[in-house]
Amino acid sequence: MARIAPFAAYMAFIAIADLLDRLGWSAQQMLWLYPLKIAAVVALLVFYRRQYVELFTARPSLRDVAVASVVGAIVFVLWINLNAGWMQIGASAGYNPAGTDGRIDWVLVACRVAGAALVVPVMEELFWRSFLQRWLAKAQFLDCRPAEVGVKALAITSVLFGFEHNLWFAGIVAGLAYGLLYMRAGNLWSPIVAHAVTNGMLAGWVLATGSWTYW
Q1: Distance (Å, rounded) from C-alpha 45 to C-alpha 195?
Q2: Contact at 8 Å (CB) between 186 and 145?
Q3: Helices (H) and strands (E) in the chain — how many of each?
Q4: pLDDT of residue 100 exceeding 80
Q5: Cβ(167)–Cβ(76) below 8 Å
Q6: pLDDT tens digits for 159-185?
Q7: What's the rounded mean pLDDT across residues 113-130?
């Protein structure tokens, strides 16, 4: 539950946004849902913090951090290029922090960047890699070392991770990269760092180019 609840809360807010959209709410009216979503996830991560033993018992080396950073940068480059029509599910509404007057709300930008680069990597890696990838390999997942995860568990987790995203093909590639990094490095911080680098670079690129659909 400690690894599922924050992810479930995040997905629940996505469902709420979809419902509000169907009820006629505009994207502008729903901009503040994201800060609320991140606040809910942070609250759950703090509540369950004592149960995330892998974050305290296996620290990454400087080499691990360097490798993870490179992997994260590569995933970012692939993410913005793996965007052919067949690589997408539907069309992403994105997150445009500009008001009706065209001026960007920088408080919303700060919330979005912090959420994407700091909170989401921890929440998603705890769910996808620490829990699901290991649970698919061994029911008592806490007793499963990252190196013991097999190809089947890696593949299933990566595919599911991919279809969580509008850019499903890029998502599968990212899932494979983070999953392999977790298995090779033997610590959860490596995929967290890689994920954070990817999301941080994506945030910078979105702000620089105005490609809001990637948010």
Answers
A1: 17
A2: yes
A3: 10, 0
A4: no
A5: no
A6: 999 999 999 999 999 999 999 999 999
A7: 98
